[in-house]
């Protein structure tokens, strides 16, 4: 059995075949090669989840029982490098758009539009009243 170690997502993505299949679920790496044929949900779903990158979402969506969760322990071989709970390591960007904090607007962001409005109003006021009054 392989030593318990840390694997990068690119290393994990090299093991997606029937003869060599790894899964990354909740930050842990599982070698499920010997389990493929015995998986009650079939081997295809596991192979597909393995090839798609992080299998956390697929695993959770099925609503696996606690029996399934305890079975996993016998296949764990390591952890996913740089895994942060709640963030999928295979995400193209570390934070997706929804997860990014909302942009904060500073006072100067409002100042420029206000200034433009003020100048426009001053110009309109001058042209409408002041220049007519002079004529
Ligand atoms: C080490 C990883 C996994 C283990 C140990 C495991 C184990 C099990 C077990 C024991 C069941 C029987 C039902 C239950 O007890 O929940 C099951 C069902 C199932 N699993 Fe997994 N599973 C693993 C990964 C996955 C992944 C990555 C998928 C991807 C979608 C998946 C999809 C399914 C499906 C579709 C079923 C059938 C559910 C049903 O018929 O209601 N499993 N799995």
Automatic annotation (TrEMBL):
Key words, A-Z: Heme, Iron, Membrane, Metal-binding, Transmembrane, Transmembrane helix
SMART domains: Cyt-b5 (SM01117)
GO terms, molecular function: heme binding; metal ion binding
Location within or outside the cell: Membrane
InterPro entries, A to Z: Cyt_B5-like_heme/steroid-bd, Cyt_B5-like_heme/steroid_sf, Cyt_B5_heme-BS, Cytochrome_b5
Keyword Membrane: yes
SUPFAM superfamilies found in the cross-reference section: Cytochrome b5-like heme/steroid binding domain
Ranges of residues in domain Cytochrome b5 heme-binding: 4-81
Family: Belongs to the cytochrome b5 family.
Protein name: (wild Malaysian banana) hypothetical protein
Source organism of the structure: Musa acuminata subsp. malaccensis
């Amino acid at each position: 059995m392989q030593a318990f170690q840390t694997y990068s997502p690119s290393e994990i993505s090299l093991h997606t075949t029937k003869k060599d299949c790894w899964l990354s679920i909740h930050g842990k790496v599982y070698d499920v090669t010997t389990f493929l044929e015995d998986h009650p949900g079939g081997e295809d779903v596991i192979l597909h989840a393995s090839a798609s990158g992080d299998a956390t979402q697929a695993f959770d969506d099925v609503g696996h029982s606690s029996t399934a969760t305890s079975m996993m322990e016998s296949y764990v071989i390591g952890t996913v490098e740089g895994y942060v709970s709640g963030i999928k390591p295979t995400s193209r960007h570390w934070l997706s758009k929804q997860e990014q904090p909302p942009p904060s607007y500073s006072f100067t962001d409002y100042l420029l539009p206000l200034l433009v409005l003020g100048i426009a109003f001053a110009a309109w006021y001058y042209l409408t009243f002041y220049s007519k009054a002079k004529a």
